[in-house]
Protein backbone atom coordinates (compact mmCIF):
# COMPACT_ATOMS: atom_id res chain seq x y z
CA UNK A 1 0.00 0.00 0.00
CA UNK A 2 1.34 3.43 -0.88
CA UNK A 3 1.11 6.23 1.67
CA UNK A 4 -1.75 8.69 1.09
CA UNK A 5 -0.82 11.96 -0.62
CA UNK A 6 -2.60 13.93 2.10
CA UNK A 7 -0.84 13.80 5.46
CA UNK A 8 -3.49 15.69 7.43
CA UNK A 9 -7.00 16.84 6.59
CA UNK A 10 -9.21 18.94 8.85
CA UNK A 11 -12.67 19.53 7.51
CA UNK A 12 -15.27 21.83 9.05
CA UNK A 13 -13.66 21.50 12.45
CA UNK A 14 -15.09 23.32 15.49
CA UNK A 15 -13.82 22.90 19.02
CA UNK A 16 -15.84 24.13 21.97
CA UNK A 17 -14.44 23.43 25.41
CA UNK A 18 -16.98 22.92 28.21
CA UNK A 19 -19.76 22.80 25.65
CA UNK A 20 -23.20 23.65 27.01
CA UNK A 21 -21.81 25.15 30.22
CA UNK A 22 -21.63 28.79 31.23
CA UNK A 23 -17.84 28.63 30.91
CA UNK A 24 -17.94 27.29 27.34
CA UNK A 25 -15.04 28.48 25.13
CA UNK A 26 -15.19 28.32 21.36
CA UNK A 27 -11.51 27.63 20.67
CA UNK A 28 -11.80 26.87 16.96
CA UNK A 29 -14.46 27.41 14.36
CA UNK A 30 -14.79 26.33 10.73
CA UNK A 31 -11.25 25.05 10.33
CA UNK A 32 -10.46 23.51 6.94
CA UNK A 33 -6.86 22.58 6.31
CA UNK A 34 -5.18 20.04 4.09
CA UNK A 35 -1.50 19.21 4.42
CA UNK A 36 0.32 17.29 1.71
CA UNK A 37 2.75 14.46 2.36
CA UNK A 38 6.20 15.88 3.05
CA UNK A 39 4.88 19.42 3.45
CA UNK A 40 6.07 21.71 6.27
CA UNK A 41 3.28 23.91 7.63
CA UNK A 42 3.80 26.59 10.28
CA UNK A 43 0.87 27.74 12.41
CA UNK A 44 1.03 31.28 13.70
CA UNK A 45 -1.42 33.56 15.50
CA UNK A 46 -1.97 35.50 18.70
CA UNK A 47 -1.93 33.75 22.05
CA UNK A 48 -5.19 31.91 22.66
CA UNK A 49 -6.20 31.63 18.98
CA UNK A 50 -6.29 27.86 19.15
CA UNK A 51 -2.90 26.76 17.74
CA UNK A 52 -2.28 24.19 20.45
CA UNK A 53 -5.90 23.09 20.24
CA UNK A 54 -5.52 22.45 16.52
CA UNK A 55 -2.37 20.41 17.11
CA UNK A 56 -4.00 18.44 19.92
CA UNK A 57 -6.94 17.63 17.64
CA UNK A 58 -4.58 16.24 15.00
CA UNK A 59 -2.82 14.23 17.70
CA UNK A 60 -6.20 12.97 18.95
CA UNK A 61 -5.39 14.18 22.46
CA UNK A 62 -8.82 15.89 22.27
CA UNK A 63 -11.81 15.33 19.99
CA UNK A 64 -13.48 17.94 17.75
CA UNK A 65 -16.96 19.21 18.65
CA UNK A 66 -17.84 18.91 14.98
CA UNK A 67 -16.07 18.20 11.73
CA UNK A 68 -13.50 15.53 10.92
CA UNK A 69 -9.76 15.10 11.41
CA UNK A 70 -7.95 12.64 9.18
CA UNK A 71 -4.28 11.70 9.52
CA UNK A 72 -2.53 9.56 6.90
CA UNK A 73 -5.92 8.80 5.37
CA UNK A 74 -7.45 7.44 8.58
CA UNK A 75 -9.41 8.88 11.50
CA UNK A 76 -7.16 10.69 14.02
CA UNK A 77 -7.91 8.06 16.67
CA UNK A 78 -6.65 5.23 14.48
CA UNK A 79 -3.61 7.27 13.42
CA UNK A 80 -2.71 7.77 17.08
CA UNK A 81 -3.02 4.06 17.80
CA UNK A 82 -0.85 3.33 14.76
CA UNK A 83 1.69 5.97 15.93
CA UNK A 84 1.49 7.86 12.66
CA UNK A 85 2.96 10.94 14.32
CA UNK A 86 5.64 12.07 16.73
CA UNK A 87 5.09 15.04 18.97
CA UNK A 88 7.33 17.62 20.68
CA UNK A 89 6.39 20.53 22.92
CA UNK A 90 8.03 23.69 24.24
CA UNK A 91 9.23 21.81 27.31
CA UNK A 92 11.34 18.89 26.22
CA UNK A 93 9.36 16.78 28.72
CA UNK A 94 12.14 14.26 29.24
CA UNK A 95 12.07 11.72 32.03
CA UNK A 96 14.82 12.80 34.41
CA UNK A 97 15.54 9.35 35.79
CA UNK A 98 16.17 7.86 32.35
CA UNK A 99 19.34 8.36 30.36
CA UNK A 100 19.13 10.28 27.09
CA UNK A 101 19.27 6.98 25.20
CA UNK A 102 16.45 5.44 27.23
CA UNK A 103 14.32 8.55 26.77
CA UNK A 104 14.61 8.12 23.02
CA UNK A 105 13.92 4.40 23.33
CA UNK A 106 10.68 4.98 25.21
CA UNK A 107 8.21 5.22 22.31
CA UNK A 108 9.80 2.12 20.78
CA UNK A 109 9.45 0.34 24.11
CA UNK A 110 5.77 1.30 24.26
CA UNK A 111 5.38 -0.03 20.77
CA UNK A 112 6.85 -3.36 21.78
CA UNK A 113 10.10 -3.23 19.80
CA UNK A 114 12.79 -5.59 21.01
CA UNK A 115 15.74 -4.36 23.06
CA UNK A 116 18.39 -4.61 20.36
CA UNK A 117 16.31 -2.88 17.72
CA UNK A 118 15.32 -0.17 20.21
CA UNK A 119 18.89 0.57 21.09
CA UNK A 120 20.03 0.65 17.47
CA UNK A 121 17.19 2.94 16.41
CA UNK A 122 17.69 5.30 19.39
CA UNK A 123 21.41 5.54 18.67
CA UNK A 124 20.66 6.32 15.03
CA UNK A 125 18.25 9.11 16.09
CA UNK A 126 20.78 10.60 18.53
CA UNK A 127 23.34 10.56 15.74
CA UNK A 128 20.86 12.44 13.56
CA UNK A 129 20.44 15.24 16.11
CA UNK A 130 24.17 15.32 16.88
CA UNK A 131 24.00 13.88 20.40
CA UNK A 132 25.59 10.46 19.96
CA UNK A 133 28.18 11.31 22.61
CA UNK A 134 25.52 12.10 25.22
CA UNK A 135 23.53 8.87 25.10
CA UNK A 136 24.50 7.88 28.65
CA UNK A 137 23.94 11.32 30.17
CA UNK A 138 20.84 12.26 32.08
CA UNK A 139 18.65 15.16 30.88
CA UNK A 140 19.70 17.46 33.73
CA UNK A 141 23.30 17.27 32.47
CA UNK A 142 22.32 18.81 29.11
CA UNK A 143 21.60 22.40 28.03
CA UNK A 144 18.06 23.42 27.06
CA UNK A 145 18.88 23.19 23.35
CA UNK A 146 20.34 19.73 23.75
CA UNK A 147 17.30 18.57 25.71
CA UNK A 148 15.09 19.83 22.92
CA UNK A 149 17.14 17.86 20.41
CA UNK A 150 16.61 14.75 22.54
CA UNK A 151 12.86 15.45 22.45
CA UNK A 152 13.02 15.69 18.65
CA UNK A 153 15.02 12.45 18.46
CA UNK A 154 12.37 10.78 20.62
CA UNK A 155 9.56 12.16 18.46
CA UNK A 156 11.27 10.78 15.36
CA UNK A 157 12.25 7.43 16.85
CA UNK A 158 9.27 5.50 15.51
CA UNK A 159 9.93 7.04 12.06
CA UNK A 160 6.55 8.76 12.07
CA UNK A 161 5.34 10.14 8.75
CA UNK A 162 4.07 13.22 10.62
CA UNK A 163 5.78 15.45 13.18
CA UNK A 164 3.71 17.75 15.44
CA UNK A 165 5.63 20.50 17.21
CA UNK A 166 4.19 23.09 19.60
CA UNK A 167 6.63 25.98 20.02
CA UNK A 168 9.47 23.52 20.44
CA UNK A 169 12.18 26.18 20.25
CA UNK A 170 10.28 28.89 22.13
CA UNK A 171 12.43 28.71 25.26
CA UNK A 172 15.79 28.72 23.47
CA UNK A 173 18.23 31.52 22.74
CA UNK A 174 18.25 32.92 19.23
CA UNK A 175 21.45 31.24 18.02
CA UNK A 176 20.49 27.79 19.31
CA UNK A 177 17.10 28.28 17.79
CA UNK A 178 18.45 29.06 14.33
CA UNK A 179 20.76 26.06 14.47
CA UNK A 180 17.91 23.75 15.46
CA UNK A 181 15.72 25.18 12.69
CA UNK A 182 18.36 24.15 10.16
CA UNK A 183 18.72 20.75 11.77
CA UNK A 184 14.98 20.20 11.73
CA UNK A 185 14.71 21.08 8.04
CA UNK A 186 17.59 18.75 7.25
CA UNK A 187 15.95 15.89 9.18
CA UNK A 188 12.52 16.47 7.63
CA UNK A 189 14.00 16.55 4.15
CA UNK A 190 16.07 13.43 4.78
CA UNK A 191 13.12 11.46 6.17
CA UNK A 192 10.28 12.89 4.05
CA UNK A 193 8.38 13.76 7.23
CA UNK A 194 5.34 16.07 7.06
CA UNK A 195 5.37 18.69 9.82
CA UNK A 196 2.96 20.98 11.62
CA UNK A 197 4.99 23.49 13.59
CA UNK A 198 3.37 26.00 15.97
CA UNK A 199 5.32 29.18 16.61
CA UNK A 200 4.71 32.80 17.55
CA UNK A 201 7.81 33.94 15.70
CA UNK A 202 7.18 35.34 12.22
CA UNK A 203 10.79 34.82 10.98
CA UNK A 204 10.80 31.28 12.33
CA UNK A 205 7.54 30.46 10.53
CA UNK A 206 8.78 31.92 7.25
CA UNK A 207 12.19 30.28 7.45
CA UNK A 208 10.81 26.81 8.13
CA UNK A 209 7.57 26.51 6.25
CA UNK A 210 6.30 25.71 2.78
CA UNK A 211 3.08 27.42 3.90
CA UNK A 212 2.35 29.65 6.88
CA UNK A 213 -1.17 29.22 8.21
CA UNK A 214 -2.29 32.42 9.92
CA UNK A 215 -4.93 32.27 12.63
CA UNK A 216 -6.97 34.86 14.49
CA UNK A 217 -8.53 34.71 17.94
CA UNK A 218 -12.10 34.88 19.20
CA UNK A 219 -13.21 32.66 17.72
CA UNK A 220 -10.06 30.88 16.59
CA UNK A 221 -10.01 30.34 12.86
CA UNK A 222 -7.72 30.31 9.87
CA UNK A 223 -7.67 33.75 8.26
CA UNK A 224 -4.92 33.34 5.71
CA UNK A 225 -2.49 30.88 4.21
CA UNK A 226 0.78 32.39 2.98
CA UNK A 227 2.84 30.23 0.58
CA UNK A 228 6.61 30.57 1.06
CA UNK A 229 8.85 29.84 -1.87
CA UNK A 230 12.43 30.11 -0.68
CA UNK A 231 13.77 26.84 -2.05
CA UNK A 232 16.49 25.04 -0.13
CA UNK A 233 17.46 27.12 2.88
CA UNK A 234 21.10 28.20 3.08
CA UNK A 235 23.22 30.65 5.06
CA UNK A 236 22.04 33.39 2.70
CA UNK A 237 18.31 32.73 3.10
CA UNK A 238 17.88 34.78 6.27
CA UNK A 239 19.24 37.84 4.46
CA UNK A 240 17.44 37.27 1.18
CA UNK A 241 14.75 39.58 -0.24
CA UNK A 242 12.35 36.63 -0.50
CA UNK A 243 12.69 36.00 3.23
CA UNK A 244 11.76 39.59 4.05
CA UNK A 245 8.89 39.51 1.57
CA UNK A 246 7.56 36.42 3.36
CA UNK A 247 7.87 38.15 6.72
CA UNK A 248 6.02 41.21 5.42
CA UNK A 249 3.22 39.05 4.01
CA UNK A 250 2.76 37.05 7.19
CA UNK A 251 2.85 40.19 9.33
CA UNK A 252 0.20 41.82 7.13
CA UNK A 253 -1.93 38.68 7.35
CA UNK A 254 -1.60 38.68 11.15
CA UNK A 255 -2.75 42.27 11.32
CA UNK A 256 -5.75 41.45 9.20
CA UNK A 257 -7.89 44.17 7.69
CA UNK A 258 -6.52 46.88 9.99
CA UNK A 259 -6.07 50.66 9.82
CA UNK A 260 -5.78 52.08 6.35
CA UNK A 261 -4.04 55.25 5.28
CA UNK A 262 -6.12 58.10 3.78
CA UNK A 263 -5.34 56.83 0.29
CA UNK A 264 -6.94 53.54 1.13
CA UNK A 265 -3.78 51.43 0.92
CA UNK A 266 -3.13 48.92 3.61
CA UNK A 267 -0.62 50.18 6.19
CA UNK A 268 2.15 47.63 6.54
CA UNK A 269 5.27 48.15 8.62
CA UNK A 270 8.25 46.29 7.26
CA UNK A 271 11.17 47.77 9.13
CA UNK A 272 11.97 45.57 12.09
CA UNK A 273 11.69 41.87 12.71
CA UNK A 274 10.22 41.62 16.17
CA UNK A 275 10.64 38.35 17.96
CA UNK A 276 7.16 37.45 19.22
CA UNK A 277 6.42 38.09 22.87
CA UNK A 278 6.74 35.04 25.08
CA UNK A 279 3.42 33.38 25.32
CA UNK A 280 1.79 32.45 28.57
CA UNK A 281 0.22 29.48 26.86
CA UNK A 282 -2.48 27.90 28.97
CA UNK A 283 -1.40 24.52 27.67
CA UNK A 284 2.23 24.98 28.66
CA UNK A 285 2.08 23.42 32.10
CA UNK A 286 0.09 20.46 30.86
CA UNK A 287 2.22 19.84 27.84
CA UNK A 288 5.18 18.07 29.42
CA UNK A 289 3.19 15.11 30.60
CA UNK A 290 1.91 14.61 27.07
CA UNK A 291 5.32 14.50 25.44
CA UNK A 292 4.67 10.84 24.98
CA UNK A 293 0.94 10.94 24.33
CA UNK A 294 -1.14 9.30 26.97
CA UNK A 295 1.77 8.48 29.25
CA UNK A 296 2.03 10.04 32.70
CA UNK A 297 5.59 10.32 34.04
CA UNK A 298 4.65 8.12 37.01
CA UNK A 299 3.65 5.34 34.65
CA UNK A 300 7.05 5.09 33.02
CA UNK A 301 9.39 2.40 34.17
CA UNK A 302 12.64 3.66 35.66
N1 LIG B 1 -8.80 22.30 28.26
C1 LIG B 1 -9.34 23.50 28.06
N2 LIG B 1 -10.48 23.89 28.68
C2 LIG B 1 -11.03 25.10 28.47
N3 LIG B 1 -10.53 26.02 27.61
C3 LIG B 1 -9.40 25.70 26.96
C4 LIG B 1 -8.74 24.44 27.15
N4 LIG B 1 -7.64 24.41 26.35
C5 LIG B 1 -7.62 25.59 25.71
N5 LIG B 1 -8.67 26.38 26.07
C6 LIG B 1 -8.99 27.71 25.55
O1 LIG B 1 -9.07 27.62 24.14
C7 LIG B 1 -8.51 28.77 23.53
C8 LIG B 1 -7.36 28.34 22.61
O2 LIG B 1 -6.31 27.85 23.39
P1 LIG B 1 -4.93 27.33 22.79
O3 LIG B 1 -5.22 26.36 21.71
O4 LIG B 1 -4.08 26.86 23.91
O5 LIG B 1 -4.33 28.67 22.14
P2 LIG B 1 -2.86 28.98 21.59
O6 LIG B 1 -2.08 27.70 21.59
O7 LIG B 1 -3.07 29.55 20.23
O8 LIG B 1 -2.27 30.00 22.52
C9 LIG B 1 -8.07 29.68 24.66
O9 LIG B 1 -9.10 30.60 24.90
C10 LIG B 1 -7.90 28.73 25.82
O10 LIG B 1 -8.08 29.37 27.05
MG1 LIG C 1 -0.33 27.14 22.57
TrEMBL record:
- What is the organism of origin for this protein? Catenuloplanes nepalensis
GO MF, any single term: ATP binding
- Name it: NitT/TauT family transport system ATP-binding protein
Source species taxonomy: Bacteria, Bacillati, Actinomycetota, Actinomycetes, Micromonosporales
Query: PROSITE patterns attached here?
Result: ABC_TRANSPORTER_1, ABC_TRANSPORTER_2
Superkingdom of this protein's organism: Bacteria
Region of interest (Disordered), residue spans: 274-302
The ABC transporter domain covers which part of the protein?
A: 8-242
Q: Which SUPFAM superfamilies match?
A: P-loop containing nucleoside triphosphate hydrolases
**Which UniProt keywords are present, listed alphabetically?**
ATP-binding, Nucleotide-binding, Transport
A Pfam family reported for this protein in Swiss-Prot or TrEMBL: ABC_tran
Amino acid sequence: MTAPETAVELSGVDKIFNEGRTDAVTALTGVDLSIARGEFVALIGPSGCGKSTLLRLVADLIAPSSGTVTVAGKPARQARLDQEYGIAFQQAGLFEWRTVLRNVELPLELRGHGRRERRARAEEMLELVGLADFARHHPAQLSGGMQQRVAIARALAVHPPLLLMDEPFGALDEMTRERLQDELLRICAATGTSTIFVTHSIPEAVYLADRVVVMSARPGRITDVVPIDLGTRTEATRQSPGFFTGITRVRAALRGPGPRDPGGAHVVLTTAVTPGSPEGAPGAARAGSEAVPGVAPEAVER
